[in-house]
Amino acid sequence: MDWFDFSLKLPITDPTWIFLLVLLIILFAPILLNKLRIPHIIGMILAGLVIGEHGFNILVRDSSFELFGKVGLYYIMFLAGLEMNMGDFKQNRGKALVLGLLAFIVPIGIGLVTNIALLKYGVLTSVLLASMYASHTLVAYPIVIRYGVSRHRSVSIAVGGTAVTDTLTLLVLAVVGGMFKGESDGFFWVWLVIKVIFLGILIVYLFPRIGRWFFRRYDDNVMQFIFVLAMVFLGAGLMEFVGMEGILGAFLAGLVLNRLIPHVSPLMNHLEFVGNALFIPYFLIGVGMLIDVHVIFGHGDALKVAAVMIVVALAGKWIACWLTQKIYKMGGIERELMYGLSNAQAAATLAAVLVGYNIILPNGERLLNDDVLNGTVLLILVTCIVSSFITERAARKIAMEEAHLEENRSVEAEKILIPIANPDTIEDLINLSLVIRDPKQRDNLLALNVINDDSSSESAELRGKRYLEKAAMITASADVPLRQITRYDLNIASGIIHTAKEYAVTDVIIGLHRKVNIVDSFFGMLTENLLKGLHREVMVSKFLMPINTIRRVIVAVPPKAEYEAGFLKWVEHFCRLGSTLGCRVHFYANEETTAHLQGLVKAKYGQTLTDFSRLDDWGDLLILTGQVNFDHLLVIISARRGSISYDSSFEKLPAQISKYFANNSLIVLYPDQLGEPQDAVSFSNPRGNNESQHYEKVGKWFYKWFKKS
């Protein structure tokens, strides 16, 4: 009896060994290719070529590669929509439309001429083949994600142009396919357009509402991940149902869910991780397995067809990007990145060739023959290689330029302190810190649990440790480090103040105090003591729903807020919040303050969607009750007593908030102020109480009395 009987049979059919081999390729290909400075994507495609049926026949491109490959393709398009900076995209949608139209028209025009003149194909064959040159797939998109430039203007233009180009290409495929099925009458055209428009409206209207409803009710990370995948494949499946390719539905799903999945959230990190670690590599390996080098180089006509296809595809896309650059006076590096992203052929190209390959003409020949099929596979390989190299080079240059600008820009070291005491508010406080933090600074989040010396116990320490670990798990899911601090002190406020001073904290985020008895104040003694002991920015927050489901941010700004030391910082925080969440930030202020806000936002935060409205009398804050809906975030910019923008009407804020905004998510912000903290402020030493406030109250009373008269 043979105790060890091993015989190697190729191709491998055992699922365990198939999956192991694929994982080893995904693991070692980047390690080996990094030394050769070759993009990972090329390595995956070449690995597929080597192990496939047309290489060493180690693996067969079976149903598993088709399944995971299709998932990977949808994932690429979904991430492209999800990663898009919607504010930047809306600003550049005209450029994206122009690039998309040029990337469709130029290759088709060149392709028609060369297909008829050089390859001697008929008109319909030439049209279908030319549409292949026009289409492209964002195969190199993972590269821009890796370099952190996915929100660059040129990336948004290229991604938007991809949607336009591929939509037009897929319409051509549907029309040509319908003509050979006898469905090319006027009704077919009208019905196709109606179906696509109706489904697009359905996805754009329903998917965000379903997503917002789900995220508000279920906060489990696994459930949210599965839900998002289900929405992606529902969109893709519906698009295939009406006769289009599923990649368009996956891209639309990414666009409409963009606002619900912040760029820095744990859910986004999970989605990117699973796609880049498994599904997308599977797709790329599967593309490589299609390539048959022997047929291409062993047949003269196939090589000629492939050469024409490659030259036309590369030249057509370059001309389209060059024209877009010249029209909008863009930089050369931006043209390079747009060209790199819009050059690779894969998904729609394969769809086009398979449509033509499966159409049998009356004479028994195929509309697109074997030469075109094999030439297409070589086209995919060459364009993916060119696309990867160009995108890698351009993305690296842009990343280095941005890093150089950051080095030259004097930026205060950011340290955000999140005191944690209530387990119900941990997730909201951490998520708020994630969307306002500067992503270019590392180690800028600190979580603090203060244990009172008078009531310290082992159970209190264990409870605090659990709270800190929960906070660290949330930030780790978003790939953001969090420093955990446990402190013993005389009281909570003293512990927070001393920690803030020791760690040079720039911002403090706390939850809104809950009144426990009738004599308790609205903000509580903790907040009041913090404001007296700290001159740094303090955010007092209350969230009634997950922050990623907020649809609009309403910011009420008092007069003279622009003269406070922390003005620039809090504007940056809320513009960053709006940009990350993809929601509009609406500022309410008087005329002078609005002018400062508009100038600052236009100069530094143009990608954020903003609105500005007049709020001349801060005492009329109640007019906002008609503007703030249940899914809006109300931000009230307050001020410490005695500061430049302090207004006597701030004394009424607690009562107004309790009565009129109790059912709204809320942030009350106290900006940085100059000078030392007001440690000594008390009833016996009210140096923070400006006497001019009394005159101000009297003046306002007389003004309103005369106005009534």
Describe the structure.
With 709 residues, this protein is α/β, with parallel strands linked by helices. It has 3 domains: 340 residues, Na+/H+ antiporter like fold; 126 residues, Rossmann fold; 140 residues, HUPs (Rossmann fold), CATH 3.40.50.620. Helices cover 60% and strands 8% of the residues. The chain is built from 25 helices and 10 strands. Strand 7, helix 23 and strand 8 form a beta-alpha-beta unit. Helix 5 packs antiparallel against helix 14. The radius of gyration is 30 Å and the shape is elongated. The chain starts with 14 loop residues before the first helix and ends with a helix.
In short:
With 709 residues, this protein is an alpha/beta fold. It has helices at 15-36, 40-51, 63-83, 86-91, 93-117, 123-134, 141-146, 153-180, 186-217, 221-241, 246-257, 266-289, 293-298, 300-328, 332-341, 347-357, 370-408, 426-436, 458-477, 492-502, 524-533, 567-581, 591-604, 653-660, 692-708, and strands spanning 416-419, 445-452, 483-489, 507-511, 537-542, 552-556, 584-589, 610-614, 632-637, 665-670.
